[in-house]
Amino acid sequence: MTLPPQIDLAHDVGKRTHHFHGGLRLRHNKKVSCQDPVERPPLPELLVVPLLQHAGDVAEPLVRIGDRVLKGQQIGHCQPCAAIHAPVSGSVEAIEERPMSHPSGQAGPCVVIRPDGMEQWAKLKPLGDWLNAGSDCLIEQIQNCGIAGLGGAVFPTHAKTRDGRDRNTHTLILNGVECEPYISCDEMLMREQPGKIILGARILRRALGAEKVVIAIEDQMGAVQKALTGSTEFADSKNISVVKVPTIYPEGGERQLIQVLTGLEVPAGGRPSDIGLVCQNVATAAAVAEAVAEGKPLIERYVTVTGNGIERPRNFLALFGTPISHLVDCCGGYTSDVARLVVGGPMMGYPLESDSAPVVKASNCVLALTRQDIAAPQAEMPCIRCGECARVCPAMLLPQQLHLQIRNGLWKTAQEYGLSACIECGCCDFVCPSHIPLVDWFRFGKGEVRRLALESEATELARKRFEDREARLLKIKQERAEKMTRRKQLLKDKAMQQDRIRASIQRAENKGRTITRESPGGKPDDA
Amino acid sequence: MLISILIISGLGIAFGLGLGWAAQRFRVDSDPVVEKIDALLPQTQCGQCGYPGCRPYAEAISREEADINQCPPGGDAGIRALADLLGREPKPLNPENGEETPKTVVLIDESRCIGCTLCIQACPVDAIVGAAKLMHTVILSECTGCNLCLPPCPVDCIDIVEAEPKPPRWHRPRPQTGLDRLLVQ
């Protein structure tokens, strides 16, 4: 397929919608959490802020136990990654391993803060004149404020923006398509703070050097469209359009949404910036607006607390570090038949073992499921090759084949079958009549491939270090040997000299003449 | 008749000279098989195979002095890869060389370390830093888990710890299959 010229694409994004392969139509279950307006829950007793919140490495803590921190003060530093800030003012009670809302269920380093209730802000540094600020300046502000993709992947926004700018992005796509059932935090944000999203869109557009912004929302979000278009009219916002797309899961996936808006596929192994597009979540845009216009770091987010296991489902604007149990209490607690707690949606979320885990940058939804919601566990049966999984796969993979390769440890063929292109949406899992946990296999396979790559890197390093050491030891040995021979030579020379001196003395005595003095060269003086 | 004999022998001489020149010009100094074997070895440099490092072991295999089942850190997978490369039958790990164990690293208990530098000299990959009479420590990302630093330590301040993958290195474990999956739930 030949790509149409870039400039045509720039005008075409969002003009008409296209289709992506596969996908599912799922029940939304969103209304139940959209009834009440969004509120900030009361301050919890303790906030536990994990130092690993982004795609990337664990941040270095910048505070010590007993320190007083101010709201918005930076407490975690991670250079290529985004910063982490204190969500409240208070004192640091501990820096220790705590459960941290991660699919592994493992504990990790967290900063535990006891709020003092004064809500005293650190000195914020807004970019007053952002309309005239350079791209680098905006990107630096975004990094310092700790902004990361709030759609769930938490990829640092500054890195994505810089990459997009360096590769001539023409269109910024704001993703307001929240296709997973139950989750409604982005919808509530778009309804309540449309102005902030539009402001964020303009800032990101400037930072990217893009011309156009397309905000994609689901076709059932009527109120949202009204709110957003209302805001675009007020702020001088040319080239910002709101596009409704049909709700099919997983349309909110970056690649799927781009396919729907442009009809083009992001190349396998590539990024959207390869075709001149950058995709950001609407909540990320709102966070960027706060960071640049007010200097406010990312310390809170919209979180949906919902499911049949919650008494009064609703959305919160929750500070990072707030224990999930605290949010559930503010919703009236669990119902009596609650059976499982999930972070994220029912398709891609991960089960949580304890509700003491905190809200982090990635947590968009807390879902409490009852026994009726969870399908009865069924024995996994052999694959019958029905091909349903391939029919629904939005990445156009062959899940049945891929699964067999992984099961047999054939990592190379698994990669040839496109393992890295799997977006883990769970569609194949959902339709599999043999109840094979396909996505679990794919996640395992991806992890294993990554581990093997890291291992071979470590092996290479060890080889190099071993060889360097061998070379060094050899060199030292050679040098020592050389020194020894030189010294031996010197000794020999000295001995020879002495011999010569003695010989000439002998000669002189034999001749019966007086010896005046001998030169160091060993030749007898003729005087 | 004469012309054809001349042409054929002329060609023969020309090709012979060409090949002779190429053999001189593109001579391979080291044995390429050694490189290939070395690439399959885990580079732990632990010496459990009986040779002072992975490369010496690779050289010994290529000279057919050593067997392919003497590397415990490589384990069964390593033996299979070597068998594939050399066209031999895979065989179980030689128990005389040790057992296949999960990957570990070492940690120096800094409060007990006396700064003798013996472990620094023993480490085959220079993964221990420190100076005489000063505290030593292990660069964990470079430790291969060979445990060669343990015997020389006079105060036994080096411990073996399992290298458990923590987030963000963590990844989902292998799914439980079939019946056991049902039982767990």
Outline the structure in words:
The complex is a heterodimer of chains A (527) and B (185). Chain A is elongated and about 130 Å long. Chain A folds into 2 domains: 33-116 and 130-319, NADH-ubiquinone oxidoreductase 51kDa subunit (Rossmann fold), CATH 3.40.50; 386-527, Fumarate Reductase Iron-sulfur Protein, Chain B, domain 2. In chain A, the strands form 4 sheets. Chain A has a 5-stranded mixed β-sheet, sandwiched between helices. Chain A has 14 helices and 16 strands. With 527 residues, chain A is α/β, with parallel strands linked by helices. Chain B has 185 residues and is mostly helical. Chain B has 6 helices and 4 strands, in the order ααααβαβββα. A two-stranded antiparallel sheet of chain B has the order 1-4. Chain B has a two-stranded antiparallel ribbon with strand order 2-3. In chain B, a hairpin with a 7-residue loop joins β2 and β3. In chain B, α2 (32-40) crosses α3 (54-62). The model of chain B is unreliable at 179-185 (pLDDT under 50).
For this entry, give a set of tags.
heterodimer, A: 527 residues, alpha/beta, Rossmann fold, Fumarate Reductase Iron-sulfur Protein, Chain B, domain 2, 2 domains, five-stranded mixed β-sheet, four-stranded antiparallel β-sheet, 36% helix, B: 185 residues, mainly alpha, 3-methyladenine DNA Glycosylase II, Chain A, domain 3, Alpha-Beta Plaits, two-stranded antiparallel sheet, elongated, disordered C terminus
